[in-house]
TrEMBL record:
Its main location: membrane. Residues 15-262 form the ABC transporter domain. The lineage of its organism: Bacteria, Pseudomonadati, Pseudomonadota, Betaproteobacteria, Burkholderiales. GO terms for molecular function: ATP binding; ATP hydrolysis activity. This is ABC transporter ATP-binding protein. It comes from Diaphorobacter aerolatus. Keywords: ATP-binding, Cell membrane, Membrane, Nucleotide-binding, Transport. SUPFAM superfamilies: P-loop containing nucleoside triphosphate hydrolases.
Length: 332
């Protein structure tokens, strides 16, 4: 090695992100000290129970947090440039172009009163100076890339004439129109049946590999992350409690919360046995305990947990926020 090869700038580097909502009952810390990095063409699964801060993390990156919410701290570096310091105009130029978002409800993207071709050609022309015919051709190609049969017919349809799965495919195709560098997908397949979900996941996976797109896939479903992502980050009460490569985390979870999530997957429960669930409730983000937010539900709780655990790296490439991680020799 000559030491001159520059390290590639990651597509996205989120550093110590804090997003809060100023509510009447007080300041709610929806995202607290969240950091992660995504390289080009990599897929990060962001998992956690409802209310853990996954969507707010995605919205923060997209610049879509509205009052009473606000990004209260940290940096969001997209290809090295801090999105939190950009003007609304600069952000708009990136959104829908270099960075795109896919929502759980495709109708957040689709306009019910316009045909698919009108919406797609307008979306192309919003960021690229091309003729209507070229925009239509790009739309047709992108629908075909998403595995959509008879794309010419779909282009003539209105959203209500498409099935739920097809509508979501079209919404994903719109996100892919400009071959973005980063896509944030917020549970887009959760409402679909498992077969359609599996098809869409495999199409998205193929597409991001071909294009070198980086993808954040937000989900509460560990099995989706297992099949799709390269890396995963587990959120609990607004914080990342564990992150690492999907294989390493699923094979050997360090945090008791991750272990609990894995234990509650149907495939890990014996037939005839009741589904294992993590006992207790997620804490109220307005009244978080001083110490570890998971302590009240934790099978491994100890005296240290009265304080807030920091993020440590007990194994290479593995980060965990726990005083008693399940590393051999230190397990309580
Ligand atoms: N507009 C808002 N005003 C006040 N609190 C909000 C607002 N939006 C989100 N929150 C709070 O922020 C926290 C994180 O919410 P978020 O939607 O990110 O969770 P999530 O992990 O994506 O869950 P889900 O899967 O249910 O969407 C929650 O406690 C939620 O109530």
């Amino acid at each position: 090695m000559n030491g001159t090869t520059p390290t590639p700038v990651p597509t996205l580097e989120v550093r110590h992100l804090r997003t809060v909502f100023d509510t009447r009952a007080g300041m709610l810390k929806a995202v607290d000290d969240v950091s992660f990095t995504i390289g080009r063409g990599r897929i990060l699964g962001l998992v956690g129970e409802s209310g853990s801060g996954k969507s707010v993390t995605g919205f923060s990156i997209m610049g879509l947090v509205d009052p009473p919410g606000r990004v209260a701290g940290g940096e969001i570096l997209f290809q090295g440039r801090d999105l939190t310091k950009m003007s609304p105009r600069e952000l708009r130029a990136l959104q829908g172009n270099r960075i795109a978002m896919i929502f759980q409800d495709p109708m957040m993207t689709l306009n019910p009163v316009l045909r698919v071709d009108t919406q797609m050609t307008e979306a192309v022309q919003a960021h690229a100076r091309v003729s209507k015919d070229a925009a239509r051709e790009r739309s047709r190609e992108t629908l075909a890339m998403m595995g959509i049969p008879s794309p010419d017919e779909r282009l003539l349809a209105y959203p209500h004439q498409l099935s739920g799965g097809m509508r979501q495919r079209v919404a994903i195709a719109i996100a892919m129109l400009h071959r973005p560098d980063l896509i944030i997908a917020d549970e887009p397949t959760t409402a679909l049946d498992v077969t359609i979900q599996a098809q869409i996941l495999s199409e998205v996976q193929k597409l991001v590999q071909q294009q070198g797109t980086s993808l954040i896939w937000i989900t509460h479903d560990l099995s989706v992350v297992a099949g799709l992502a390269d890396e995963m980050a587990v959120m609990y009460a607004g914080r990342i409690v564990e992150q690492g490569s999907v294989d390493a985390v699923l094979d050997h979870p360090l945090h008791p919360y991750t272990a609990g999530l894995i234990g509650s997957l149907p495939s890990n429960n014996r037939r005839g046995q009741r589904l294992h669930q993590i006992p207790g409730m997620t804490p109220n983000l307005l009244h978080l305990p001083e110490g570890c937010a998971f302590a009240a539900r934790c099978p491994r709780v100890g005296s240290a947990c009265a304080a807030q655990p920091g993020l440590t790296e007990p194994l290479p490439g593995r980060q965990v926020r726990c005083f008693y991680p399940a590393v051999q020799g230190t397990q309580a």
